[in-house]
């Protein structure tokens, strides 16, 4: 179907960071995942677990806990402040100091009026968040030793905290301790640290500690109900489901233990806590867990997110892994010069791809290189700020990146006599954007640089003049962050935001063309096709739609086929994050997620709804391949980028699972059979 | 003749109820053992080594023997009555195998080379795996209470024929034939004429005929031949097997041989091969474990695989098509075809002896008279006349061969003259009976007919060892010039016979030669060939090199005392040792070279994993 020569790039050493904590916001129907570099990812549950946006972190910062409250997102860290985030600008909005040293944990009451944070100094600090505010309210009595975990009870009048060697119950009204629950030690000189606490049904307190024990307490009387040695090492996180009758715990020993509150005997009213299931899907420490609509979400040092469907019947596969490959672009290609711009967290690398004139008909053959790939440039950000977005023009002459505060634009000059020596010079262009961008995109002829600012306005920068200048601004359509942009050769700009809006602008005439019909799922990738009048969009529900700009409606092909996608295609979990088309093959749409490349041939018929698109020959009977529009290749894992160059050239940037796992720290030593 | 080798243990701890069947594993000597709920294992039957094993998941129950289908390169079986699972040799477990789930009950999957797997439904319907609709079964011809006794598929010319033996509730036995012809399945059900409660059943197919073998508990073995072209049935009683017990199992090896397991012979249970054509037990071996119930018997890759007790044993067997000659034991091998002649031919049991034509009888009487009258010319004419009679059809071959034997006797015993041309003519026609060969050679040697001796060696096959040894002695004692003349008078095609394995010495069993091998001249001759072979290409030597070495070994081994005592042999032994030593040196070098080449081959043939490294440009084809 498709025969390509592939620049198979594995020198992009992208390293996802450890997950520190996970929290689900019921009102927003999103989860927030804080990583060790203090970045916070926001994943949309509604859009089939799509990573909508990322709040950038920083080297000097730390996020120890995140918390949703009424659609607002808060975090607490070792700087001692509770911060609230602007979910449009994707940066800190306000912060309030705890006045009690570093904060280890934060939790919201059920009414959404207060936040409680556990501090290093040993006191619980309450913050008033009513009326969209965030201010220090009061501190409880100070105890000895830090508070590492806390939880509100269902009536919001008691807070339980976990610290060193003890668990305390506090009255919210008085700020005094109501009870002190003591824990034993396995070693006389080794403190028992309560890493996590939670409230379950019937005022039961659940705690996980450094001895690997999950303990159930009677919260009213302060007595221990049951202690279960559920893990071989520290229990770092606990979560309780909506019914409060199921508890999950995990930690340094990466198995997830499930506990259920069940009748002691048949027809008995007395209920007991029992360990019911153990899941071993993580390879390293599990640091955060939460339950989302019957799905247990967990993550930790192995950087992956595991979704466990806790309501699935026994026997069926009930879990899947969301790997940590970002859903936004971190690789950009200058097609004309065959340059690849790699975006790391705080620096950029510019590589020139290798070259060969050889070709072969044999699938998988590695062609001899006439020139090796060459690193031309490494550009570090100022003050090690994290990069929000970056871009390179198609001719490789313009390069830019943006951090949370500013955009930096560079003029790149490559030595023309590149066969002998690749000389590069780079010069910063003095240009300042008033509002820092979330996404930037160069027009194919490098005439314009388009910036989607953090206020969702679109700023058009002309690069033709001696001095780059903003020539026009389009006002924001909605208050949602822009996450995708594409510019056609006809200077038509398509902008998609996480609020499911897609808008088309004409850059030359400086006017808005139209908005696409609002689809029920967010767009995950979009590109102007081989015909610049058509925009191809991939959505989070795996549908691929094609919109005709002159007609301002979906194309005939799209109307005919949009409801004919086979079930196996629609049931895919991975989101299409790359689309590429070539004028040489106008009928072929190359779609790529992190593990699959699919050539969608528009000239071929769609298969039946229940067709097996992954195995074209299986069950075909006559030995001939099924002729249908879907041609799938699963050779690469995990793909960070896929883009067609001219002719039959394709760039694929891959980070293998082995390469990802190699950089992870040592895991808990476990005795395995046969070792 | 058939022969069964010694038993070897293939695997242990096999439960009789678990073992469904043993099937062909697709490659040479590979067999697959299908256990109902524990595992599917493949073994090399010649080395008894396990190749691979796939464990069956707890929730799964296999139902059909696992077959290897070369077209889809996969193992295929039926599980849980409604699933067809297929997995390749590289797959690690059955649980993740590809499944095709049906909403109706399946009985078995069958394999026919060059075709897709064939699925047999419980209702008797048949279809190719990919053609079958998963929701509803094709129309079948069996009822719910019908018991499928046996089910096999055969390729008959360009069609596929699936034969299924079914027992109805009213003890009626049906043969259901499903034929795949012109892209569609046609069904044909026929009630077997002979209803009987057989102990064991099996099918065997030859040409368009499918034979159902039925072994009764009383040992009667019957066959019902079903001609797929004419749809006609022929019932035949074959023989009665002695020692059949309730534990006896049967499997057909070919059209005329069956293997029987659990047969009582000399008060012990044995496995044997029967020739159903002649009703003879050709070879048998006692079972390693006696008195165990639940015996199972399979035949694959020239091995009988027997489950006895909790062990699976395998016996290699050799089974060639029998003729009466080979049964009578006159000939060392039945592989070499005897030249067609008017002389002795294989006898048929069924043909009855008719009266000889009176003309031939009269002619023979005249011949005897002329021989006694010592009239060579007349005798020669009469023999020619007789032979022209013999060439005509319609004469009884048995009586003719009797006359021929007597004529040969006459030729050899006639004292007055030596009928050279007659004898030559008889030799050329291959009309000398084997019983007269020894006398013929004695006579030829007494007349120093070197050329005729060589001619007889060339023309006549399967000579008695005594004759060969006598010839050898005679040839070795001949002068070189005499031999050269004799060879020159033979034509070229006859000469080439000596350079191939057709050389009469080559197919002679060495141990028959023992009494004659103490000839020093022979040892000298073999030493000469060995020395020649060193210098020239061993493959082009007059005798196969291996055979020469084999003979020398036997001579030296069996006559070591005589060789030590004999002063003549000393020099030959010393020469032989020199030759062998120099050869040894050569072979040592060759062994080193072989090892090196094997290493190189191994390195060059194993596909190396391609190293992508940090970057590469590679070709990608998306199908």
Automatic annotation (TrEMBL), chain A:
One of its GO terms (molecular function) is RNA binding. It holds the Pfam family WD40. InterPro entries: UTP4 (IPR046351), WD40/YVTN_repeat-like_dom_sf (IPR015943), WD40_repeat_dom_sf (IPR036322), WD40_rpt (IPR001680). SUPFAM superfamilies: WD40 repeat-like (SSF50978). GO terms for cellular component: 90S preribosome; small-subunit processome; t-UTP complex. GO terms for biological process: maturation of SSU-rRNA from tricistronic rRNA transcript (SSU-rRNA, 5.8S rRNA, LSU-rRNA). Gene3D superfamilies: YVTN repeat-like/Quinoprotein amine dehydrogenase. PANTHER family: U3 SMALL NUCLEOLAR RNA-ASSOCIATED PROTEIN 4 HOMOLOG. This is Cirhin.
Automatic annotation (TrEMBL), chain B:
GO terms for cellular component: nucleolus. GO terms for biological process: maturation of SSU-rRNA. GO terms for molecular function: RNA binding. Its main location: nucleus. It is found in: Nucleus, Nucleolus. Residues 420-622 form the Nucleolar protein 11 C-terminal domain. Residues 1-316 form the Nucleolar protein 11 N-terminal domain. InterPro entries: NOL11, Nol11_C, NOL11_N. It holds the Pfam family Nol11_C. Keywords: Activator, Nucleus, rRNA processing, Transcription, Transcription regulation. The keyword 4Fe-4S does not apply. This is Nucleolar protein 11. It comes from Pinctada imbricata.
